[in-house]
Every structure is written in C-alpha cells, then in structure tokens.
Amino acid sequence: MIETHEYEGIIQIKMSRELNGSPVYWVAAYLVDGLLIDTGCSDTSGELASFLTWKNLRMAVNTHYHEDHIGGNHDIMQKFGIDVFAHPDTVPLIAQKPTLYPYQEIAWGYPVPTTVRPISGSIHTALHEFHIIETPGHCAGHIALMEMTKGWCFTGDIFARGNPKFIRPEENIGEIIKSCRLILREAGERLVLFTSVGKIIEDGRNALTSFIEYISNLAEKVQAMARNARTIEEIINDEFGGEHDFAKFTDAQFSTRNLVRSLLEMKLQ
Description:
- With 269 residues, the chain is an alpha/beta fold.
- The protein contains ten helices and 15 strands.
- A hairpin with a 2-residue loop joins β1 and β2.
C-alpha cells in the first residue's frame, strides 16, 4: 500500500506491506525534481513504479543498503532505465542477496539485487544541488542528502525518533550522535528533516539538538549506573521499565539491550 503527501513541491511516498488491510510498517521515500530518494520495500515496488509513471523520474539515490530502502530499485530501473546511486561501500551489498531475519521477510521482503553506481560529493537535478553527507551510525555507508538553499535534509535512518528505546545490534549510538552534529554544522539556519519513517520535521535544528542532549544525558546516566555495579538487566529495568516489546517480534534485533550496550560504549563529551 502507498500513501502520498506533498510538502514544498516534494512528494513524500509512504509505503508498507499490507496485512489484513493494515500497514505492517511504514517507510518513506521522497521525490523531488526528478530525483527519488530511497525506493521502499520489495512488496510495494510494483505500486511505486506505477505511481512514478509520468512523474519525470530521472535518477534515484539509496541512503543505505537496508531492504526497506532498496526494494524498489529493480522495478524502477527496469521500467524507467534510470541510474540508482549509493555510497561506494554499499554498492556491493546492494548487488547481493541479503540475509534477513523472519521479521524482515514479513515486513519488507527480499530485494532483488541490483547494480547501482557510487556517489560522492553532490548530485544535481535541474533545479537543485544536493550535498552528500556521510552519516555513519545506523549502518556502514549511510548518507544523508542536503539541499542547502532550501534547508532540506533527507536523513534516511540516521534520525527517526527523538527518544529511542531500542536499536539494532550494528547501530552505534555514539556515531549517530556525531552524524547528527555534522548535519547541524553543515546546515544553514533553516533545517527541515525528511525522515524515512514518514515524519517531516520543520524545526530540524531543535529536533536534532534535543536528540543529542537526550542521548548524551542518557549515556552519562547509564554509565554512572554501570560504575555503581548495576548490571545491564538492572539498567534496562530501572531506566526503561524492562525490555521493549519489539525485541520479541524481531529476534532481539531491535532491543533496549542493544541501546544500553551502545550507550555504555559511547564516549562522553
């Protein structure tokens, strides 16, 4: 299923596999001046390709290699003959079949491997220049796209929630904070965040600043608890009220334990 919304000439395309008439998990792509940023999951790839007919699609960028961001690559490349770009480190990952957990198969499905082109520096459309910002932390090879004159930043998965309660095992919360600080340094006074979970945040500066403060304070508190000989289980229970329900549904891939582990490893400033 697909839902679309428009903001300042940008078309947000929210996509989800449908189960019993309801969305399983929304993920958003963005179409601006012929450039598609991310392509959603494989289950909605046909709907996406149909929607893009007559939309003057010229190229696409994957912010990273995860299956819910590259799933439409194959169909749009076949239908429109366009190039898709991604960080050089992710090009070989997008070209091979991934190993997925059952929850990933249910929510997003297996993407068809595709050959994409490496990107760096910036990418141009007829009306806009998008600077490519390397934003590691969510995964290797993650990028954000920033249109400086408009104050737009397409964040991929580097920022989705202001107060996360769980993360994946490969995520590094300290690197995520560094990437958010980099976005703040690179941006002008105006900063609108276009997130992959479908939120468009008009006061992006405040959102990122608050997120950085929240995580920094949380890391300081968690590390203090650890110095006082509190176990990870005790920290999870005392600070978060127990493990998040997402851990049950995702084979513990999304878990509070992963967040606490990463907070304990984070270098405080």
